[in-house]
Amino acid sequence: xxxxxxxxxxxxxxxxxxxxxxxxxxxxxxxxxxxxxxxxxxxxxxxxxxxxxxxxxxxxxxxxxxxxxxxxxxxxxxxxxxxxxxxxxxxxxxxxx
Length: 97
Description:
The protein is mainly alpha-helical. It is 63% helix and 11% strand. The longest helix has 22 residues, at 3-24.
């Protein structure tokens, strides 16, 4: 195998290893939060400084609870048309006068 192919395979294995470790941890560093959320470091820094994302700060380092980040990522659900129609039908049926 060529050096280029080996380098590519090593990079992929490193990424897989970091993702596997990420799945087992409950407290994440900034770099791990970047992997989990897909956001850039700069954007996460901005969100923490604006107190818009749940985080902890210890010895000038940022830490995140994985469960908090997952909840934060899922807090603004956009309902489908079908869900909205179902809720509307339920509301009309239960609020008739």
